[in-house]
Amino acid sequence: MKKLVVILMVICLIILTGCGGTKTESTTESTSQGSQTPKEETKQYKITLILKNLTNPMWISVKDGAEAAAKDYGVELTALAPLKADNNEEQIRLVEDTITKRVDAIVLIPADSMGIIPAVEKANEANIPVINVNTKVGGGKVETFVAVENYDAAAKVSKALAEKLGGKGKVIILEGKAGAQSAIDLKQGAVDTFKNYPDIEIVASQTANWNRAEAMQVTQNLLQAHPDVNAIFASNDEMAMGAVEAVDQAGLTGKILIAGLDANADALQAIKEGKMTLTCDKRGYDQGYVGVEAAIKFLNGEPIDDRIIIDTTIVDESNIDEYLAKLKK
What we know:
alpha/beta, Rossmann fold, 2 domains, disordered N terminus
């Protein structure tokens, strides 16, 4: 009888085990973008994107691209920017705060190429990799630089502008923020290109700090000093749009050619309306996407180039409808 009881107990244990008495659970974690990433299969990196501001359409586009990459790769992305646009001190604090949170990587667009160096060096000391996007950091260690070649982009725009001028005329340059390497490169690319045209004269070159309202005021003042100007080269579309407003108020729309860079929505519409001549698509979305993608590849131990170049395209009356159609999608 005892043997029978023992046998029955063994049989019951076998049945219970076979029916799932031992079970392994698979859990998933929701990313900030809402996708589901299996914890057992993929590590969810924490990456912080630090921008110059979130008012300029260019940086909003960069942010959109970065968020798309984060969603595609299943990582957690936090996007930050100074409350005061292009403020180096605020950016430094944002980097320092990010370091204390022990993120896996920082994707950085510096407002001041030299001023941001101490913050980058602190990230280096904390062994947090820094991916530099758009505007080159002047020191410290970065794993790669993802950007348009600003010098080349400015050269491409100024050449197109010079050709539309027929190789002669007086030009005003609206510069970006002093100290930003992107502003330096954009101005130099334009200056060097215009030198190839003996009959083109740069009559003034002044900063408007990437800002539309400031560019409008600067342009108004420069038009008074140089009423016979033929064209305006603006280092970004926000300043170009400020120039468009100033030229329009002066009753000179269509008489002064205006060029910018970034291909933001307002600039594209201005080209369609004949208020602006051309711009350059610097693919901000792609810069943001590739920046986050490069961070993930680095964290995964994959090789990345020291410099990743994003191509550019001139946008004018010949292809404006194609670009406007993309906006509607």
